[in-house]
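2024-03-11 09:14:02 INFO worker-7 job=invfold-0412 stage=load source=structure_tokens
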């Protein structure tokens, strides 16, 4: 393993800050997924992210910032932090920051003039969030600026939730010491942040562009509104492509209780289900299939989804069938990720 995969006890924050200031890339742990980070004020470093990920340059990045120091003037402190990136910070942004940051929420605001078009994908808006991982917060505080940090994987593929996932994606760059990976352990949440657009409040009100583990209901409660407007897809955002978070193995979703013999046409396949494995084996005793059981717990499934998809992808199955998810609102983020995973799957 490369010396460029480091734990917190093995390196000083000053060394990491120096690495960033020299224009190098860094894989950082967050509570959602690992991010591929660069100095948000360094266009040449940002270009490296697009090149390494093979990411379209019109697909915007999210700026990660440190939380202000807690105190009696916390509202003003949040306003000052956001004003570094936006020329229009609405009151709703401060309310949401106090409620959910640090945490898995990205807020879209009108961008400040100095914010690079490489960050915004040429749009007039910028996405900002405060990650919750303690090591990354410490890094951001020491750095004193913003880091752009899309997920640390090839564009469209499964997001990484461990340092080894990042290494598997970019091992050549890590071994060549072109990418440092901070190993902060397994990601706590496991899927990307909820993205909420506040840039068109007068015309649209708040709009969820990408669902996540911070639900629409939780946001409505904090903002004192009953519902949010539907996404009209007029703003490009991270994770907005139809095919995303995708394994190379063909993936479909189906109610596992409705399986038929035709579903078992492939010679080597996997079925992921909420139903107990023993029950399925009794129902399908002759099926040549590997059964995987998942709990009906949204937080556990979110944390383990990408790890599971990566593991299955590495086993060379000809097809993966994934059980249909519950329709409850708290599962909206997982519905989004799994739907995009299905759409983009099977493409080498």
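2024-03-11 09:14:09 INFO worker-7 stage=emit residues=348
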């Amino acid at each position: 393993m490369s010396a460029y995969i480091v734990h917190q006890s093995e390196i000083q924050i000053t060394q990491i800050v120096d690495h960033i200031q020299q224009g190098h890339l860094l894989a950082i742990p967050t509570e959602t997924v690992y991010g591929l980070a660069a100095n948000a004020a360094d266009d040449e470093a940002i270009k490296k992210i697009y090149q390494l990920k093979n990411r379209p340059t019109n697909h915007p990045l999210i700026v990660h910032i440190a939380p202000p120091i807690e105190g009696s003037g916390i509202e003003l402190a949040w306003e000052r932090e956001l004003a570094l990136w936006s020329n229009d910070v609405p009151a709703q942004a401060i309310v949401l920051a106090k409620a959910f940051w640090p945490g898995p929420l990205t807020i879209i605001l009108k961008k400040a003039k100095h914010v690079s078009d490489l960050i915004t994908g040429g749009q007039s808006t910028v996405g900002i969030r405060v990650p919750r991982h303690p090591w990354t917060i410490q890094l951001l505080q020491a750095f004193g600026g913003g880091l752009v940090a899309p997920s640390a994987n090839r564009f469209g593929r499964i997001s990484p939730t461990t340092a080894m996932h990042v290494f598997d994606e970019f091992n050549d760059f890590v071994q060549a010491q072109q990418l440092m990976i901070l190993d902060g352990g397994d990601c706590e949440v496991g899927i990307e942040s909820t993205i909420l657009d506040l840039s068109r409040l007068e015309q649209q009100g708040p709009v969820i562009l990408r669902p996540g583990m911070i639900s629409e209901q939780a946001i409505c409660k904090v903002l004192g509104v009953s519902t949010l407007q539907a996404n009209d897809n007029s703003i490009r955002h991270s994770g907005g492509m139809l095919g995303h978070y995708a394994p190379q193995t063909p993936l479909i979703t189906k109610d596992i209780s409705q399986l038929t013999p035709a579903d078992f046409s492939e010679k080597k396949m996997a079925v992921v289900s909420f139903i107990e494995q023993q029950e399925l084996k009794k129902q399908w005793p002759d099926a040549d299939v590997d059964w995987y059981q998942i709990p009906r717990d949204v937080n556990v499934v979110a944390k383990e989804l990408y790890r599971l998809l990566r593991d299955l992808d590495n086993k060379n199955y000809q097809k993966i069938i994934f059980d249909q998810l519950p329709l409850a609102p708290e599962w909206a983020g997982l519905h989004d990720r799994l739907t995009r995973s299905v759409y983009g799957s099977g493409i080498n």
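2024-03-11 09:14:09 INFO worker-7 stage=report msg="The chain has a mean pLDDT of 94."
2024-03-11 09:14:10 INFO worker-7 job finished
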